[in-house]
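Protocol step 4 of 5: obtain the predicted structure for the target chain.
Materials: sequence only (see below). No template structures provided, no constraints applied. The aim of this step is simply to have a reference model before the mutagenesis design in step 5. Sequence pasted as it appears in the construct record:
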Amino acid sequence: MIVKMMKYNIVLFAPERDRFIESLRQTGMVDITTSGWEPSEADRNLLIDIEARTKALAAIDALTAEGRKSDATVEAASAFEAYSEAQAAITAAKSDIARLEKSVEEWSAWGDFDTDHIAALAKAGVVIRYFVTSTSTYSKGAEEWGEKYNLSLVSDADNFARFVIIGDGTEQIDIDAQELKAPTMSLASLRAAVAAAQSRIDSAEQTIVACAAHRAVIEAELAALKTQLQNVRISSTAEQAAEGLLLVLEGWAEEANADKVDALLEASPNTVYLKSKPTPEDDTPVKLKNNSFARLFELIGSLYALPKYGTVDLTPIFAPFYMLFFAICLNDVGYGSILFLAGLALFFKGGKSLKTASKLTMLCGGASALFGFYTGGVFGVSIPSVLPALNWFPFLDFQNDFFTISMVIGIIQIMIGMAINIGYTCYTFGVKNALGSIGWFLMILSTCLAAVGGMAGIEWYSLSSPAYLASAGVALVLMLLLNRPSFNIFANFGSGLWDTYNNIAGLLSDVLSYIRLFAIGLSGGVLAQVFNNLALGITGLDAGFESFTVGTVFQILGASVILLIGHAINLFMSCISSFVHPMRLTFVEFFKNAGFEMTTREFKPLKNENN
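Step 4 output (structure tokens):
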């Protein structure tokens, strides 16, 4: 649900600004509007400082999470400066390693050589020039080139011929080959330089690990900078009055905390305020409040947008559907169990910031394992085929039955979305503005029920029954004649026909989109079977074995490697599909039919950042 808010228009004496803002920060209950803030050059530097310290804390946490130890010492007051210098050293060393390793890769095929000897030869007038071309080109031109120049082949590995031409350095060499710049370091020297650069990285990382002892100092600096940024934003966007003597602020607080905020404002000297409920024209900040289950899926919803204040929070509605869709797409006991265990490991090792993600991973992984058992699949193996004792269980024939079921699920979710949209429209604008939508909802519902009734042998409510025809007739009247309360009957009819075309095309497209659940779930299972057959077929284990020999051990090891790699690839691809496509069904099909309206403003009350 969306937490109810109260709007405050606050007028205060300008010199009291800092004291007043600090009092709001101490309570942590009031969000001050700072919309339209444009940072100055100094403000941008402040943002850069905040980002730098945020990255510093993340880097320190990443290294300490690896269990890294350090013998380095860092002064508390200069912990961030020590980190910055260490990070700059790491960046420079990594750049050097990339350059040196490129040289190593380029010259390793030439073999090791002493660049001092080469330089001495050049000083004596013997210049070695280096060329590379394709092996085929070299084969065609080597004889001719050899007649003109003192040429010697060094290597012909990787379909490239590497050769040198020895002369006095003044020759004009015209051949179909690329000349390389003479090396300045031997391979041994290059590799030693790479090792030295890596040593610099290790030393710098030791310094960063040592900064962990003074993490609280960096956190305090970050909190102070964020507080400073809050003050800057408020000062820059506050409306001034009475020649700058007064400041006018817009604030927001939860309705449940309104009494506490009122008491705070009344106790503030030289402060006047007006309190009111938000209007549709206000850019009201949004805070969600859901139960422990739905709260996990706020992470999914936030990837799209927050619901606009005054509308419906769809998180509790789409949460069970998203979990079901994820389970359908992954659709395997083994894969779901692995995902559950990964979430469990993340819960205990990932820190507070990843608790929600870890719980969501466990929930979706567990649901996938359960649904996978219902469809009888574990790592692409059919459970009923290997455990005949479980044949009493009504396993779902996913391949033959779920195509229709996926569309039924889509119809159900779309109709729930339409019902939510109708309820919101009736509540906000009145029932007469929802009559057209009610007609469409009634038409779809009655048609679905009549179709089911006909298949079930319920004659009094089938597609040809008077009861269905009557309900469809009522729906048509609402759809075609009462869809626009402000229009006359003829305009309503024309508008209703146009809406009929758009709605039929849109609803058909929306329902068919849910077939992706069937397609993704099926493709993951088929790929798992392919990898199983590939592993057994290549190693010959599909034919079985008469006796257990040393060769059998190698067969099993080979099959195990293929299975491990194949199922790892399939699990990775299936997890991505299972995450993305249910999200697409939620954000496009469901949100559209539910009339979702978005906002970008989250309720963020002023507070002490170091608390």
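Step 4 remarks: The chain is about 60% helix and 10% strand. The chain has a mean pLDDT of 85.
Proceed to step 5.
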